[in-house]
């Protein structure tokens, strides 16, 4: 980790922060397991709530797969155990919002979330990250400003998660899992920052390399050894969650998702602003979701190309946002076979192969 503190300089952070109009972004942490029957409906209910337009850009969701009931979820890690101990979690499903709530995540309501959103933000926070899939390396940069004085007990948490996993299926009926925590940087206990005066800022940098090859532990009893292996199903589907929390009161001051690619103003004009395409399900039968990251709000073209090089589908998409985007593709009129999807903009492109099996 590289760490430095400084006061705001004109032109350095003004593009990252919107001073005076800072939205409170709530941190939603869920303790769950693929071996927990009540966790399945709780996750379904939570995801449906978070998908409502009223919650756009107002929350960060992170899920910890625990080591019970039974032998627990195979994606359990000791870092989840640390977070479980911190909150005193003794049953699942269990959820926390900004360090509070402490209840069944399936019982969260829009009214409860609106109450958390309404708490004035006292921190402005932005994070960027890059993934080198070849080396399995993730780099994270975090900048924040204290809008009010912050106490000595403040800690910064950085977690790498996978947007969707499908290999850790247990006995509760769930076949896919969202926002599964994979690794916390540098510690599950948070990174100590100390107190901050109002308008004081900080810049943090973190790097982590996933070691070895993918493994699917037989259960939580056979916990992944991060020194020699990892449980990342697809590196192109990783995200980063960042939040600032009072270690004593558990209050979360602010949260954010990392934005793929470092500060857009620093990107070379010839460097692509698109990254990390994923298609799921893959293989697909009728419909598929194409997920990709963009470091710019820009129009893109989505093309599907067959093995002969012919474009069998092309669509212009104008409502692309900074961060993760999902394009829904209907494949009902396509024949079985292997295809490539290509997402392109004026600054570059990404592509991914997928198959159709009906």
Can you put this structure into words, describing what you see?
Helix content is 8%, strand content 44%. With 358 residues, it is mainly β. The strands form six sheets. Strands 1-11-7-6-16 form a five-stranded mixed beta sheet, with no helix packed on it. 39% of the residues are buried. The model is unreliable at 1-20 and 263-271 (pLDDT under 50).
Question: What can be said about this structure in brief?
Answer:
By secondary structure, this protein is mostly beta strands. The chain folds into two domains: 259 residues, Immunoglobulins (Immunoglobulin-like, Sandwich), CATH 2.60.40; 89 residues, Immunoglobulin-like (Sandwich), CATH 2.60.40.3080.
Q: What average pLDDT do the residues reach?
A: 86
- What Rg, in angstroms, do the CA atoms define? 20 Å
Could you please say which CATH topology of the largest domain applies here?
A: Immunoglobulin-like
E-strand count: 23
* Beta-strand residue fraction: 35-45%
